[in-house]
Amino acid sequence: MTQSVTGEVDLTQTLQDMAQALGFSQIGVADVDLSAAEAGLIAWLQAGFHGQMDYMARHGLKRARPAELVPGTVRVITARMDYLPRGTPEGWQALEWQRLAQPMQGQVSLYARGRDYHKVLRARLQRLADQLAALLGPLGHRVFCDSAPVLEVELAQRSGLGWRGKHTLTLSREGGSLFFLGEIYVDAPLACTPPVEGHCGRCQACITVCPTGAIVAPYRLDARRCISYLTIEHAGPIPEPLRAAIGNRLYGCDDCQLACPWNKFARRSPLPDFVPRSDWVAPSLLALWAWDEAGFLSRTEGSPIRRIGFERWQRNLAVASGNALARGDAESPALRGALTQARAAATPLVAEHIDWALAQG
């Protein structure tokens, strides 16, 4: 542990070593002055691109002011944890594209096939903070993982974990974009780690591949058109003009990441937490319609999928089923029967989507 003339404590390598032992891939340290990002945040909110995510606007500029969120904060430790499951074969992107082309199978985003990442990261971030406190003495800190108004990508970029890709996700030359981010707000003047330059160049792959045109310009995402937003965050009816583009996606969307050339460097996670559960490997739409709410809750225990609830799950399942019927398949009669049977007990939201699905083929 060294200290510079400015009073900053350099624990970079020590932090990195401790973090890797906890399953993290990389650690950075950022300053708390994010004022340069405020104009972009305001413009994004004023355009309404946050959709129903009212919490994005509710906290105002506190998201860009770490010291207001947690008084006394002078640095933010940023952490990256890879989530591509261990045992994932080479050419995994091609396999994912093949699954998207199977209309009678549901598709769940890669990150959601194992244990809820919030639980995994938060516990390990807390352990890292405790270890840091053991080195420094009393330490004021708060641990965050997608759980508070935090400009995660901005902090990750400033601390050198990667750069903001044109799809707005963090990209790393060493690890692509298949990783989670977490933060520890601290009151200790740690030495900051340098940012890295962007390396997207002229590539437009993520923009071109987006099924709904949600990436309206490089580095600018309209969440209201994003399939991840529509299948997870959006509470009401999915807009009809966007339903066909959802295909068989039931929870989230990986298309922009599948198309990104940098994900040839995506790293496998050593943690068993992200190994896919059997229900999400190649789920049949017919089998999924057989779940009642108790079955859904049982199968999604400890999974991020549970957070959308049974009603949104069935809404998404109805959209995927309608898209499958539109394609035509030997199993279409059985799927129509499952939809018809489910409609009798459906909520108004689900019933509307089932009616739409039945009208597709």
Output the keywords.
361 residues, alpha+beta, 2 domains, four-stranded antiparallel β-sheet, two-stranded antiparallel ribbon, 16 helices, 39% helix, 12% strand, elongated
**Strand order in space, largest sheet:** 3-4-9-6
Stretches where pLDDT falls below 50 for ≥5 residues?
A: none
Number of domain modules: 2
Largest sheet: 4 strands, antiparallel
Based on helices, strands and strand pairing, what is the structural class?
alpha+beta
Q: What share of the residues lie within helices?
A: 25-40%
Question: What separation lies between the terminal Cα atoms?
Answer: 67 Å
Shape: elongated
Q: What's the helix-strand series?
A: EEHEHHHEHEHEHEEEHEEHHEHHHHHH
Q: List how many beta strands DSSP finds.
A: 12
The fraction of residues assigned to DSSP E strands is: 5-15%
Provide the residue-averaged pLDDT: 94
CA radius of gyration:
22 Å
Count of discrete alpha- or pi-helical segments spanning 4 or more residues: 16
What secondary-structure arrangement, pairings included, does this model have?
Blueprint lengths: L1 E2 L5 E2 L1 H10 L4 E6 L6 H9 L7 H5 L7 H4 L5 E8 L9 H9 L6 E2 L8 H20 L4 E4 L7 H7 L4 E2 L5 E2 L7 E8 L18 H5 L5 E3 L2 E2 L5 H7 L6 H7 L2 E3 L3 H5 L25 H5 L3 H7 L9 H19 L4 H12 L4 H11 L3
Parallel strand pairs: 5-12
Antiparallel strand pairs: 1-2, 3-4, 4-9, 6-9, 7-8, 10-11
Helix pairs in contact: 14-15, 14-16, 15-16
Report on the architecture of this protein.
Helix 14 packs antiparallel against helix 15 (332-343) and helix 14 packs parallel to helix 16. Helices cover 39% and strands 12% of the residues. A hairpin with a 5-residue loop joins strand 7 and strand 8. The strands form five sheets. Strands 3-4-9-6 form a four-stranded antiparallel beta sheet, sandwiched between helices. Strands 1-2 form a two-stranded antiparallel sheet. It has a two-stranded parallel ribbon with strand order 5-12. The protein is built from 16 helices and twelve strands. The protein has two domains: 2-102 and 113-186, no CATH class; 219-263 and 276-358, no CATH class. By secondary structure, it is of the alpha+beta class.
